Amino acid sequence: MKVWSIEDSLKAYNIENWGLHYFGINPKGNLTVNPRQTSMPTIDMKEVVDDIVARGIKLPVLIRFQDILRHRVITLNEAFKKAIEENNYKGRYQGVYPIKVNQLREVVEEILDAGAAYQFGIEAGSKAELLAAIAMNSNPDSLILCNGYKDYSIIKTALNGLKLGKRVIIIVEKLSELYQVMKIGREIGVRPQIGIRCKLRTKGSGKWESSGGEAAKFGLTTPEILQAIKTLKDEGMIDCAKLMHFHIGSQITDIRTIKDATKEAARIYAKLRKMGVDLEYLDVGGGLGVDYDGSHTSFNSSTNYSLQEYVSDIVYTIQEVCLAEEVPEPGIVSESGRAIVAHHSVLVVNVFGSIEIGATPYSLEPSPDENDVVHEMREILAGLSIKNLSEAYHDALNRKEEAFTMFKLGFLDLEDKAKVENLFWKICHSIAKMMPTLKYVPEELIEMTKHLSDQYLCNFSLFQSAPDHWAIQHLFPILPIHRLNEEPARQATLVDITCDSDGKMDKFIDLRDVKDTLPLHALNGGPYYLGLFLMGAYQDIMGDEHNLFGRVNEVHVFEDAEEPGGYYIEEIIQGNTVSGILSTIQYNPAELAKMIKSCADAQVKAGALKPREGVDLLNDYEQRLGEYTYIDHS
Predict the structure, then answer these.
(1) Which of 201, 405, 460, 546 is deepest in the core (most CB within 10 A)?
(2) 50-63 average pLDDT score
(3) Residue 306 has what pLDDT?
């Protein structure tokens, strides 16, 4: 019999394909983190979690490996630098981070610090984001791009940023914005720096395909672009046009789409240059995808290209068009957010129980007075063989339905109904064990096995921590962070602690398709930790307050070879307490406690409680208000 190995776990969870060499497994069977993809000793994630728990930090916890975040910024910039040098491209690369992907200050600060040497800037799409970007981005040579629909306040804020010495470029999404920008600029005495967003015919690929193309929400059509240029010329402001922009969607899965869009946009840029518009930059927007499932395909949760291929194709395509049109090669701007932040954060949750289909704590031994339908189910189970699996399954289904009908009509007692259900699941489990020996497995038996998986109860809220999985069926890599030198003998789906039936994960990454179950280990009474990976993009900021669980505890981990374990915890950010989350929806904790005191006093006065009991009840209530919102299994 083959012994399960670390290599088997690497393959089972496809770590080497989606992990980009940031994650691995050590001889102890624990997941490891290599934040800079170097030869330095790796960080044992199980040790990190044990350290966190020892400090009294409750799970679930979001772990940020800040060195991965820095490494992603450097990797993107160096990739463009390499492609520019290899192609002898005349322009430079100057990227911006689209702050909407993760606006948390600790993320933005790390990105700006890591990107300082490259003049890496910020893209903002709202008033709040713009105000944060202007304050946070202290590098006068980096760009601040202002996207999205704009009112007077946003435009004036952007123009005031120019007064403060910031390089703020206002991206015009519609013609009316251009007129507003010019008007407000004259009012406050500022010549704006303007970008023009083009509505390309080329559409994106993957889940967000419909957000681009001719029906896109943002951007100017070709006639509108020409009108914008005419207006700027008429007003003597054509020199204010600094940048041409396009965006065809998030998580673009197919490299051909990227090349087509870049070629179309480069051609528009070239034609505008020939019309006397001295644009400095061509902004290729976002869309650089993340290979969540590691399949390297154009599937929704994957990409069929690497970072270097993406960068090389953009540089080459723009240069090719500019050479053909005999115009200067522009500075290249990209708004890559997902590819920068996805890998750096891992949500670690503890499994606190499981629901096994068909399991029963109640004794269901044969009895002489049990109904005939129960005897028939026992005969089906006893007569199972390789030759009659489909027939036995059909018979078991029929007997189960017959029993249910009899129970509804009052002809079957509760114990016999329980026996029929228990025997049915025993038959299904027995069939599933025999199926691997079949040369051909009927579709109905394959479908049957989907209902046999365990449900692992996990201490987290899907709606708060992985909203994209619930809302748009987005897939994330999920696996245990320990026991990876043991064979995962169970097949399971995951359910969260919310009271919502949608709070479950039953779709998982796979190289060929989407799996309905996840291979996991049997619970053995000790802690069992699962990691949800590539969570850094959108999940942190888009989570809602379903069931009032709120934001989870968070720790920041940095690599340091001189520290025990090769890391240190730099910062701990506490998640929501009960009182904290209640305060956000206008419940005053002090007022709530006062209400409880009134109730307790009334019960004491009525003689239903002793005075000491009333005090204890109030103290207990106030203690619960200060606790972490998630389940405590310590």
Answers:
(1) 460
(2) 96
(3) 95
- CA–CA separation, 319 and 314 (whole Å): 8
d(CA 549, CA 620) in angstroms, rounded, equals 20
Helix and strand element counts for the chain (H, E): 22, 23
376 and 298 together in one domain: no
Q: How many C-alpha atoms does 132 have within 13 Å on its Cβ side?
A: 21
Compute the average pLDDT of residues 57-77: 97
Of 416, 448, 480, the one marking the end of a domain is 448
Buried b (16+ CB within 10 A) or exposed e, 505-542: bbbbbbeeeebbbbbbbebeeebbbbbbbbbbbbbbeb
Phi, psi of 621 (to 5 degrees): -60, -45
| Helix intervals (H) in 435-458 | 443-449
Count of domains observed in the chain: 3
* Joined tokens for residue 216: 């896109």
For residue 522, what is the DSSP state?
Answer: P
Q: Is residue 26 part of a domain?
A: no
pLDDT digits (tens, 9 = 90+) for 587-629: 999 999 999 999 999 999 999 999 999 999 999 999 999 999 9
Gap between the Cα atoms of 592 and 587, Å rounded: 7
Please tell me the predicted confidence (pLDDT) of residue 205.
57
Same domain membership, residue 206 and residue 146: yes
Q: Say what angle helices 389-409 and 414-434 make with each other, to 10 degrees.
A: 170
Over range 277-282, report the average pLDDT.
Answer: 97
Pairing of strands 454-458, 43-44: unpaired
52 located within any domain: no
Contact of 124 with 99, CB cutoff 8 Å: yes
Structure tokens at 417: 């109904």
- What is the rounded CA–CA span in Å between residue 434 and residue 438? 7
Separation CA 548–CA 385 (nearest Å): 51
In this structure, what token pair is assigned to residue 250? 């998030």
Which tokens hold the place of 525?
């009474």
SS3 sequence of 399-417: HHHHHHHHHHHCCCCHHHH
Based on the number of CB atoms within 10 Å of its own CB, is 620 exposed (0-12), middle (13-18) or buried (19 or more)? Answer: exposed
Residue-wise pLDDT tens digits, 497-555:
998 888 999 999 998 889 999 999 999 999 999 999 999 999 988 877 888 899 999 99
Rounded-to-integer distance, Cα 296 and Cα 79, Å: 19
pTM of the predicted model, to two decimals?
Answer: 0.91
Assess whether pLDDT exceeds 70 at residue 204.
Answer: no
- What pLDDT is attached to residue 360? 78
3-state secondary structure of 45: helix
Among 4-8, 208-212, 582-586, the least confident range: 208-212
Contacts with 39 (C-beta within 8 Å, 6 or more apart), sequence order: none
> Which of these three, 431, 448, 465, is where a domain ends?
448
- Side-chain-side CA neighbours of 628 within 13 Å: the count stands at 20
Q: Please tell me the predicted confidence (pLDDT) of residue 54.
A: 95
Band of pLDDT at residue 215, cut at 50, 70 and 90:
low
Looking at the fold, whether 330 and 443 belong to one and the same domain comes out as: no
Residue 116 sits in the same domain as residue 238: yes
The verdict on 328 and 443 lying in the same domain is: no
266 shares a domain with 314? yes
User: At 426, which CATH number?
Assistant: 1.20.58.930
Domain-located, residue 594: yes
Q: How far apart are CA 45 and CA 67, in angstroms?
A: 14
Residues 6+ apart with CB under 8 A from 88: none
Residue 13 lies in a domain: no
- Domain of 123 in residue numbering reads as 89-336
